[in-house]
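Project outcomes to date are best conveyed with an example. Our students and postdoctoral researchers have been running inverse folding experiments weekly, and each run begins with a structure described purely in tokens. The record below, which covers 340 residues, was selected by the lab manager from last quarter's runs and is presented without edits.
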């Protein structure tokens, strides 16, 4: 493991005004996204879609890294260029999702644990050869009556730490993603309590696994009201409580925090990041690692039609720019009207 090299990659992923494009939807998830826009999900349609995203000129300005799925990291563009090369040519760093999704956690009804540790060392070595310099593993914590349990938090935090240690041994920067879901009708204080508990557990396990925090990125949820809660916390409250929670839990040795969007609307995800960036200075760099909040608009604009590729690229460039500005605390709602 070369910690200086890992830290260099981690810092590049959170370069000022840039963030990560999470384009690592599994084949099942991208199928659901494509169904919404009336597109049949095939290896070619997935390739065509992702190729136009990666060829968008705004990548150079606003995107530091792209998280890929196993299929995509091996795919070539229509002209035969590997998609990884197109990402590298834009100045972004290719990354790879390495978890194998969630399975029910025994004796813990309603709770799941993320799998994928078996054989991970050799998969990481292969991915490094294919160009991946960072990886992602997502733990999923649901809030509901009587959940989460300690067992669930501990099992997921332990798996995240084992994954992170394996990544660093393979000279790959681990993105550590403990996602507390925003589904449900809980209030923001409950989200705060569960997020704090999970982050404390995660950093404890990372310590025991001897993970060098300098060579990691945290990808957390924001502290936010459940989507079905009667009262929705304001942008300022989300920003304040998220930062308070992160300051309580995330050591300053961590170079950067790249939020997931988690089902927030495009503009809410941008507004929250912007409000937090305006509250600096902070011990770590804040940015985005959005999937849906970067891709919903371009997917809709494209809708699978070759004639709409330029419109899809404009929609992607706009969201990338809005979030790049939000990472600097330079966004305002009026900029939303200037769709590039
Ligand atoms: P969302 O921003 O759509 O939550 O996706 C980010 C991600 O990578 C989830 O693992």
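After processing, the design step wrote out the following sequence:
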């Amino acid at each position: 493991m070369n910690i200086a090299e890992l830290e260099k990659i981690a810092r590049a992923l959170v370069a000022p005004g840039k963030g990560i494009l999470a384009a690592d939807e599994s084949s099942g998830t991208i199928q659901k996204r494509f169904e919404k826009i009336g597109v049949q999900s095939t290896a070619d349609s997935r390739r065509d879609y992702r190729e136009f995203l990666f060829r968008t000129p705004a990548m150079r300005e606003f995107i530091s890294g792209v998280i890929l799925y196993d299929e995509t990291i091996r795919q070539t563009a229509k002209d035969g260029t590997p998609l990884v090369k197109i990402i590298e040519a834009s100045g972004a760093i290719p990354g790879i999702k390495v978890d194998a999704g969630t399975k029910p956690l025994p004796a813990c009804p309603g709770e799941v644990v993320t799998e994928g540790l078996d054989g991970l060392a050799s998969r990481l070595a292969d991915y490094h050869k294919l160009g991946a310099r960072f990886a992602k593993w997502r733990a999923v914590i649901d809030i509901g009556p009587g959940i989460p349990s300690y067992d669930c938090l501990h099992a997921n935090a332990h798996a995240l730490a084992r994954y992170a240690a394996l990544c660093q041994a393979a000279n790959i920067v681990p993105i550590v993603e403990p996602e507390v879901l925003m589904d449900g009708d809980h209030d923001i204080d409950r989200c705060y309590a569960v997020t704090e508990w999970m982050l404390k557990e995660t950093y404890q396990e990372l310590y025991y696994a001897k993970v060098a925090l300098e060579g990691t990125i945290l990808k957390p949820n924001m502290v936010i009201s459940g989507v079905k809660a009667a009262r929705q916390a304001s942008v300022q409250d989300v920003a304040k409580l998220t930062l308070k929670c992160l300051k309580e839990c995330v050591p300053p040795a961590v170079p950067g925090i790249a939020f997931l969007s988690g089902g927030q609307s495009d503009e809410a995800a941008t507004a929250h990041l912007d409000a937090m960036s305006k509250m600096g200075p902070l011990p770590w760099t804040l940015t985005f690692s959005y999937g849906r909040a970067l891709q919903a608009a371009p997917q809709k604009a494209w809708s699978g039609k070759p004639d709409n590729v330029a419109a899809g690229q404009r929609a992607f460039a706009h969201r990338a720019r809005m979030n790049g500005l939000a990472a600097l605390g330079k966004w305002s709602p009026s900029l939303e009207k200037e769709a590039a």
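The first helix runs from residue 3 to 13. The chain has one domain: 3-338. The training component of this project remains on track.
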